[in-house]
Design goal:
Helices cover 32% and strands 24% of the residues. By secondary structure, it is an alpha+beta fold. The chain folds into 2 domains: 121 residues, 3-Layer(aba) Sandwich (Creatine Amidinohydrolase, Chain A, domain 1); 233 residues, Creatinase/methionine aminopeptidase superfamily (Creatine Amidinohydrolase, Alpha-Beta Complex). Helix 4 crosses helix 5, helix 6 crosses helix 7 and helix 8 runs antiparallel to helix 9. The longest helix has 27 residues.
Length: 376
């Protein structure tokens, strides 16, 4: 519900997480959403209107068919696009006394120009639905369910690694060289069978590739070297994401990798210990930095090179972010990743990632997959 003094207008599909959050159901085509005072309206064509009314939990939003409005705006003079005319008509009809309108910063520029020509003052807002950062109990359970659907994909990777054989500098699986691409294909098949889709891809990298945190992974998986599996699919029914990272080894783990793993696991535990509503995100990040420094690992260009975590929900990366420059304080209901890692170009990398739900007193870890460094 809009609590600001100004009406708010959005034009997008539910590929936009804010639009998905407001609509409460998947709508692939663009639609208008207007919030003014204590009333909210969604404007849909008849193909989507029935879906919204039947499937959306958002009983506080009045659904209005677009077709009669399109017939009206076609009578309007001028060369404006139909979409721009619709925006003007919607504002004139449902917020007739308002000339200052808040829009998301993704609002179409051409439409913004046409609204300004009609005398509207547009105020872009970077976060259209700030309340998304605090998840309800239902949202928490949706994310937990997403994670549980990912575990079989990690199990499949472990099964393949356990069955595979090391021959000199290669890993063979059923007579073929084992590759990152093959592991990703097998993980994807498992995810799809559980209603999860890797819309943002996934990371399965090996060897020195793991020293680059977001290297997607390619080519042969190497023995006695770290294998980072970072899997972050979207639930095709609810729209929520999972995000989990585990590091495996096929063969014997070198002592330096074991030491890195121990430091990463301890840094994660220490980050958990300071999580609670009211904690500054930067304090969580600094706890990880301090832990790595106690173990003798650096931060900066090598070692620990990224933020400690980020919010996860209808977007894979959303507020709040756990890093040095993060403003404000954590609140109960925040759902964040805790993903410390260490990366060295001549060794490789180690990363662990769990999703946790922040409470007033502490946190609830939604991730229950094993974290031991297993030499498969």
């Amino acid at each position: 519900m809009n609590t600001t003094a100004n009406p708010r207008l959005l034009l997008d599909s539910t590929h936009n997480p804010d639009a998905r959050y407001r609509a409460g159901v998947e709508i692939p085509d663009r639609f208008f959403l207007l919030e003014t005072g204590n009333k909210s309206y969604i404007f849909l064509d008849r193909r989507e209107l029935g879906v919204f009314k039947e499937c959306s939990p958002r009983t506080d939003i009045e659904a209005i068919p677009l077709e009669p409005l399109i017939d009206e705006v076609r009578k309007m003079k001028g060369g404006s696009s139909t979409a721009a005319k619709l925006a003007i008509h919607i504002l004139q009809t449902y917020a007739p006394d308002e000339k200052t309108v808040e829009v998301p910063d993704s609002f179409p520029l051409s439409m913004a120009d046409e609204l300004r020509e009609q005398g509207y003052d547009l105020l872009p807002v970077s976060v259209f639905c700030p309340e998304r950062a605090q998840k309800s109990e239902d949202e928490k359970e949706m994310v937990r369910s997403c994670l549980e659907k990912v575990y079989p994909a990690l199990d499949k990777i472990r099964e393949i690694l356990a069955e595979a054989e090391i021959q000199k500098e290669r890993i063979l699986y059923r007579g073929e060289v084992l590759t990152c691409e093959f592991l990703k294909q097998q993980a994807d098949k498992t995810l799809i069978g559980r209603g999860m889709m890797s819309t943002e891809g996934m990371i399965i990298s090996g060897g020195v590739q793991t020293a680059i945190p977001h290297h997607r992974g390619s080519g042969p998986v190497l023995p006695h070297a770290p294998i980072i599996c970072d899997i972050f699919p979207r639930d095709m029914e609810t729209g929520y994401f999972a995000d989990i990272t585990r590091t495996f080894i096929k063969g014997q783990a070198p002592e330096n990798i074991k030491r890195m793993y121990q430091a990463v696991a301890q840094a994660q535990e220490n980050a958990f210990s300071v999580l609670r509503g009211g904690t500054e995100p930067s304090a969580v990040h600094q706890t990880v930095v301090d832990t790595f420094q106690e173990y003798g690992f650096e931060t900066g260009e090598q070692g620990f090179v990224h933020a400690t975590g980020h919010g996860v929900g209808l977007a894979l990366h959303e507020e709040p972010y756990l890093k040095n420059s993060a403003p404000g304080k954590l609140r109960a209901g925040n759902l964040v990743s805790i993903e410390p890692g260490l990366y060295y170009s001549d060794i490789g990398g180690v990363r662990l990632e769990d999703l946790v739900y922040v409470t007033k007193q502490g946190y609830e870890n939604l991730t229950s997959y094993p974290k031991e460094l297993q030499e498969l």
